[in-house]
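User: I'm writing a tutorial on reading structure tokens. Could you give me a worked example: one chain, its sequence, then its tokens, then a sentence or two explaining what the tokens reveal?
Assistant: Sure. Here is the example chain.
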Amino acid sequence: MKKIKIFKSTDKKYPSKLLKIKDYPKELYVLGNEKLLNKKSIAIVGSRDCTEYGAKYAESFAEQISKENICIVSGMALGIDTCAHIGALKEKGNTIAVLGCGFDHIYPEENTELFNKIIENNGCVISEYPPETEADLSKFPFRNRIISALSMGVLVVEAKHRSGSTVTARYAKEQEKKVFCIPGNIDLKTSVGTNRLIQGGAKLVINAEDILVEYGFPAETDETEQEISVEEEYLEIYNVLTHMPTNINIIAKKCNLDIPKVSQKLLMMEIKGYIKSSPGNEYVRL
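And here are its predicted structure tokens:
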């Protein structure tokens, strides 16, 4: 492991953005590229139990935002946080992970490899806790104030009601930062928090440009997604599907077809790369 740097709040290298919040850490433990702490950043957070839809767009938004030389900040938790860090690394962009524990006790253990990749790829991992501090879930919501403080704004991809991600959004509002949300399926628990945040005034976004234009970056004029050429016999079913999971019963009802017929066509569509199946006989567009 690289040498841990300790920045006291009185040090010149201590990030000035943190000093603007009333409960700033008195000490900051830093591994990796500390220059990122003063770089323009956007936080991306969300549910640990994310859907395929959420994972896809957390990674995609992080990748697109990174292209503008903007750092991605998140909490290195499973789910959306992980996808956000991966999206930034995929574009060779910079990313900061804010831990709720010490460096000697990486949590979750499954993300030890991600922790190492962030450091190896010129990223930065920070904590307000000494290295020997074990993971204590009660500390995790409090660290979210650091995530929002380091960022110009916070994107919430998926969030359950009263989740850690909604706590981050609350901190962002208190710090007078912008809050962005990707709308979700109203039938899913992971959409309750995000949809409520939108009702409360968060900006609904459907692509990375919706965020970038808020900070003076030019919007893309070309479509980034390539159109898939679907054979005519599958178009009726394909047009029913979206990037959010749709159950086979709903597909059959909307297309006025029997389930065995729909099931057969869905199988062929998946083989051809038009769609992907999800648990529970649900399907999404690719």
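What the tokens reveal: Residues 52-66 form the longest helix (15 residues). Residues 232-285 form a domain with the Arc Repressor Mutant, subunit A fold (CATH 1.10.10.10).
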